[in-house]
Amino acid sequence: MSHKIIYLDNNATTPIHPEVKKAIIKAMSLYGNASSLHELGRTSRAAIEASRANISGFLGASPEELIFVGTGSEANNGVLNNITCHGSCCSAKQGKRDEIITTVIEHPCVLEASKCLASKGLKVHFLKVDDRGKIDLNQLQKLLSEHTALVSVMSANNEIGTIQEIGEIARLAHKYGAYFHTDAVQAVGKIPLDVRKLEIDFLSFSAHKIYGPKGVGSLYIRKGIPYCPFIRGGHQEMGRRAGTENTIGILALSRAIDMRREEMDEEAIRLLSLKKALKYGLAEKIPDIRFNGDQDDTLPGTLNVSFMGAEGESILLYLDLEGICVSTGSACASGSLDPSHVLLALGLTHEWAHGSVRISLGRQTTESEIHRVLKVFPGIIEKIRRMSTTYKKK
What we know:
This protein has helices at residues 18-27, 39-59, 72-83, 108-119, 137-143, 166-175, 236-239, 247-285, 312-321, 341-345, 350-354, 367-387, and strands spanning 6-7, 66-69, 99-103, 123-127, 148-152, 179-183, 202-206, 217-221, 289-292, 302-307, 324-325, 356-360. By secondary structure, the chain is of the alpha/beta class. It has a seven-stranded mixed beta sheet, sandwiched between helices. The chain has a three-stranded antiparallel beta sheet with strand order 9-10-12. Strands 1-11 form a two-stranded parallel ribbon. It starts with 5 loop residues before the first strand and ends in a 7-residue tail after the last helix.
């Protein structure tokens, strides 16, 4: 097609920021292993530690509380593995605490890791959510006990954008002596987050969601909390994550954080305005649709919408033919034809859940792109519905 690509899948990954590209090119000259004692190694080490200080400051943390990892999924798995380690030589051993509380709408990496731990004998509680995607704090309080080792709740949902009451959840967890972890992969750099003010013990995030490269992320571990390395065999990252540091990726992440510090607030206002125009435009032009998730307490660029009588995969493919990139949910679950576990948890029927797409705007999204989407969307839905054997226009 001759159309210019309109990229609206920023929750899956973001284009690299031009300033981050410059930082990557510059960092490519730092080839010394940061663990080497010679000058080239020391130069790489200094650059990594400067990046650690910069990134930790953005989160309200201290540099020694931040380790670099490969992905957000690695960070999340690391926390779940750590907090439930019962190895006799492990400093993270939690005594009789052998229960985890998480939610039914977490990212697959948290859900699958939790189910794996359950298969090994740990007790895992899955909190339900209401029709906006918010957890019930009363249900959380009833599940908390002296057996709870960890509460893990994502800051903002990757499919619907709903933001949780992280500070309240952390304080409840601490009231019962449990640690609190948040998967903040979709939240860091999009909404303000301060680990001290929110009393967070563990926080995971990834560079490629904030205009950095893939393959690098970070895990915040509050000072004083023991941590069992998920990857062993090296002294790197203060003995908490073995493996040669990704110098280029870490410096790129630091530059991405610089740009979030400069652009996040203004961008949020602009994206909210564009999303509002998109939402009301779709509602005006297309009948039988519904918007999913909390419509107020939400990520500024995330819009999840369901169309009765139209399969999400068909919508995605027809939009793709027009040069418009969206998704039907989490990129990590894109190979599955099952309806979204997040949308089903909100109470949607299978029919509504199957007819959903996630539209996630980013810093490059323009008003003219939204106008083009609104121009082609109604015709696509009408075409799909004409072929449907079940859709009957009201």
